[in-house]
C-alpha cells in the first residue's frame, strides 16, 4: 500500500504535503490492532457467522430433511420450490442443487474468519501493549482453534473430502483436499492442543455463554470419536468412552443435568450447567435458532397467535415431523422414522402434552397438534387456519389432502407422499419456547449446541456397543427420568433388556429431536442409505452418506475433486 494514496483521500479536506512513498508489505496485528477492544472484536468476528451457520447455508435443513425426522412437503403448491426439498428427502440431490454449495460456503466462511483472526492474534508478540496477559491471549487463540475445529468437524461430516485451511492472508489459491483420515487427525490435534489453554465453565461462571471451554472442547472430541468409524474406517469407541466418562466425572469442568426436560432450552440456559456450549441469543439482537431457517418456520400459520407471540409476524410451515400414520390413521409398518409415535411408546412422557404457555415464563408440552385456539384481533375466540382455505386446521400425525375434513373422517384421496400434503399435515415440535409478546423473557434462550445430555448418550452408546446394556440403561435413565413422572414404568429396566439397536436410535431421536444431528446418527448406525421410512426407499448404494461438492464450488475451485458417486 502506498502512503501517498491515503494522502490523496485526505487532501479533499485537510490537505497533505508529505508525498514521500512509504511501502507496507502487509497489514499485521501490530498495525491493524491498536487497543484491547480491537483484539476482542477481532476475536469475536467468527462467532457471529458461526452462530448463523447452524441454520444458514441450509445446514440444518440438510441434516434434518434428509433423515427420518423432518420433512418439507409440497403443501398445495407451497414449498415445492422446484422439487429441491423432495430431492433432499429422497437422497436424489445433485451438485447442481444450490444447497450443496451453500453448506460448503457457509462453513468455510466461518473457517476463513476464524483463521484470519487466528493469524492476527498469533502475530501479537507483546500482549501487554493491549493490556492483556499472555494467558488471556493464548486463551483467545485456543477458543478460535476450537471454533474452527467445530466448523471443520461439520465439513468432514457433510463432505468427508475437505480442505484444511491454516492460512488465509496473502493466499490467492485454494488448497487441495485432505483425506478424511488426515482431516480427522488435524481436528483431533487442534482440540487436544487447545484444551490446556482453555478456561473451565466454573472459572467463567455466568460469563460462560458463547465461550469454548475445556468441557466443550472435550465434548467435540467425544463427537469426533463417536463417529470415527464412519469418518476414517477405524472405530474409536473406547476413546469416546474414556473421554465421556472423564467429562461426567468433572475432569474438564462442573456440569449437571437439568431436572426439567424443557430447562435446557429455556431462557435460563445461558448459565445452565447442562449447556456445554451455547450461542447466546436475545430478542433485541441475535436469535438465529428463532429464524425462518430453523424453528420459526417449524410452526403452522398463525401459531404465533396461539403462543401470544406476534413480534415476528406469522410463521410459514417449512418443517414438520414426518408422519407415523397413513391417511386412514393406520400406523406405518416401517421401523425408522415415525417420531411422534416413538414418543407415544411411553405414554406418560411429559413432553407429549400439547405446547402451552402457562404465564410467568413457563410452558408445558413440546408438540403442536389438533386445533390451536387463540383470540383474534377483534378479541373473539378463533382457531389457527392455513394459507389455502378459511377452515380451522386440525394438525395430525398424517400427510394428505385433508382440507376441511373433521377429525376421524375418512377422505377419498389416499395418497400420502412428499408431493401431496396440505396445511393440516404433520405435527410440530417446539423445543425452544415462544413466550407471549409481553413476557420479559421472550426469545432469550441461548442455542444449546452441546448439552451435557449428549455426553451421557454418547457414553451409553459406547457401553451398549461393548455389550454392557445395564450400564447403557443406567446412563440413559439418568437423563430420561426428567421426561416422566416419579416412579415411571417407562424407565429402562436395570439390566437394559429393552435396549436394541432400534431402541437406541429411537432414544437418540426422542432426546435430540430437531437439534440438527439426525442424519449423522443414522449414518453411524448404518441405516441412512439402507433404511426405509415414510415415502423413502433405500438408496442404490451408500455414496449418499456424504453430499456432493456443489458445482458452483467446483467451478471456482478447479483443484477440487468431486466426491465419489456424483
Topology (SSEs and partners):
Elements (H helix, E strand, L loop, with lengths): L2 H8 L18 H4 L3 H17 L6 H7 L4 E2 L12 H7 L7 H25 L11 H26 L20 H15 L6 H4 L9 H13 L1 H5 L4 H12 L26 E5 L23 H5 L12 E2 L17 H6 L11 E2 L5 E2 L2 E2 L4 E3 L5 E3 L44 E2 L17 E5 H14 L3 H12 L20 H12 L5 H7 L26 H6 L10
Antiparallel strand pairs: 1-3, 2-10, 4-5, 6-9, 7-8
Helix pairs in contact: 3-6, 3-7, 6-7, 7-8, 8-10, 10-12, 10-15, 12-15, 15-16
Radius of gyration: 25 Å
* Strand/helix succession: HHHHEHHHHHHHHEHEHEEEEEEEHHHHH
Residue-averaged pLDDT:
94
Low-confidence stretches: 1-24
Could you explain how this protein is built, in words?
This protein has 566 residues and is mainly alpha-helical. 36% of the residues lie in helices and 5% in strands. It is built from 19 helices and 10 strands. It is globular and about 75 Å long. It starts with a helix and ends in a 10-residue tail after the last helix. Residues 411-566 form the RagB/SusD domain.
Q: Features of this protein?
A:
566 residues; mainly alpha; two-stranded antiparallel sheet; two-stranded antiparallel ribbon; 19 helices; 10 strands; 36% helix; disordered N terminus
Summarize the structure.
By secondary structure, this protein is mainly alpha-helical. It is built from 19 helices and ten strands. The chain has helices at residues 3-10, 29-32, 36-52, 59-65, 84-90, 98-122, 134-159, 180-194, 201-204, 214-226, 228-232, 237-248, 303-307, 339-344, 452-465, 469-480, 501-512, 518-524, 551-556, and strands at 70-71, 275-279, 320-321, 356-357, 363-364, 367-368, 373-375, 381-383, 428-429, 447-451.
